[in-house]
Amino acid sequence: MKKISLITIFTFSVIIQNLKAQCDERASACLPKLKPFNSNGQYYRVQLVDNEIGKIKLTFNSNLVYRIASCNKSSDGKALVIKIFDTNGKQVFSNESDTGHFWDIQFGATSQYVIQASYPSGHGCVALLIGYMPKDKYAQIK
Amino acid sequence: MNGNIKKMCNFAQNFMSKLIGLGLSVMILISCGGKTSQQLEGENSTHEETKTISPRDKAKIEKMIYSIPSPVQAALLLEKTGARFDNKYMNDVSKVSSYQTTPQIALNIGIYGADLAYTNVYKKHVEGLKYFSVIQKLGDKIGIGYIFTPELMRRFEANQNNQDSLISITTDSFTEVHSHLKKNQQEELIALMLVGGWIEALYISCQIWENNPNKAIATLIAEQKFSLNDVMEVIRRSPKVPELDKIYKDLKELVAVFNQVKATYSYEKTELKKDRNLAVIENQTKLSYSNETIKKISKIISKIRNSIN
């Protein structure tokens, strides 16, 4: 029994280490995806298993346009579903119907929001980068 | 017989995968410092038809991460107000040798990082190089100096007149720093750097406002009400270090003053411009505050900043 417990714990640790390593490896690969936006300097990563969602609470500024870059897919190849909720819990954005593309996001006024990231099925590493650029510059590049 | 053995094997496999799944959930949740539920702050709203968090999402286990605005973002917004550059507000590079402990170093990499961002945005290349150099020096002491390579320094020098490139070099480097510390589970150093950068950026904005009290800068300062909540959460969830404990206590005074900044929020609709992959979220936030409140914020942030640099 003791042996089985030790083997189980060992197996868990190996799996966790592997998952974490996967998560770490994928983060820096996101940077080119964000261009020409500038990263906000933070690397958001969380390992999701079934029935888990990752959330990032942050303030979006009205003078900037934002891009959320994800470099991951779930264990069964599904793309990440991104939803944005305001502080009242109202959903203001979702890429659920079109996960194949990136979305740039701009806000009428500065306020706090929650970005929710999850996989429709399966599990995997969520590694997100958030980039921004001034609105006037964005108008020039588009 | 073979069929029975197969059934038993399938049962055993299912059972083990569920057991491993359960174990993983618990262990990863513990290792990531996850939280099973999170109350969002509510503000007044005049919403039209929108979806709310679905029961399916609510039933899921949430892992909340708090994010602090980048000092580069703060500097860009400051520049948009028409504020002029003034190097007297930045932390003196000659102080670099006085930062000896790891928390002091991390905190001041954040502070110098905000100063570097300030020089990048205003294309003050000579000053920028000095700040880049001290960050590299401090980074060496805590194992992240390798990110600020001589090659990166050369790129920095070569792009001295290109604001976009300077900002990109700085933000990419700090993203790598963040990634490195995350990988090494040095969450307290991440918190110290982020908080140091946020304090310095707010300090610079306040100093500029003191000398030129215009409405645009005051609004920029008042908007930090939102970020301050996230700063407090980042510290609260970080591994305990005395430096962060002290800052947390000091920032409570700032929270009390920022509570005098009133915010009302309303959401109208989201317009999807599919040809540009752009979502425009039409919302309104009205902030009301007095100059007296901004003065108090300025006084407190100066005190905090001067106690940590």
> Could you list the spans of chain B in which at least 5 consecutive residues all have pLDDT below 50?
1-50
Looking across the biggest beta sheet of chain A, what order are the strands in?
1-8-3-6
Order of helices and strands of chain B: HEHEHHHHHHHHHEEH
Residue windows where pLDDT falls under 50 for at least 5 positions of chain A: none
Please give a structural write-up.
- The complex is a heterodimer of chains A (142) and B (309).
- Chain A starts with a helix and ends with a helix.
- The mean pLDDT of chain A is 82.
- Chain A is α+β, with helices and mostly antiparallel strands and 142 residues long.
- Chain A is built from three helices and eight strands, in the order H-H-E-E-E-E-E-E-E-E-H.
- Chain B is globular, with a radius of gyration of 23 Å.
- The N and C termini of chain B lie far apart (75 Å).
- Residues 1-50 of chain B have low confidence and may be disordered.
- Chains A and B meet through helix 1, strand 1, strand 2, strand 4 and strand 5 of A and helix 1, strand 1, strand 2, helix 3 and helix 7 of B.
- Strand 6 of chain A pairs parallel with strand 4 (278-288) of chain B.
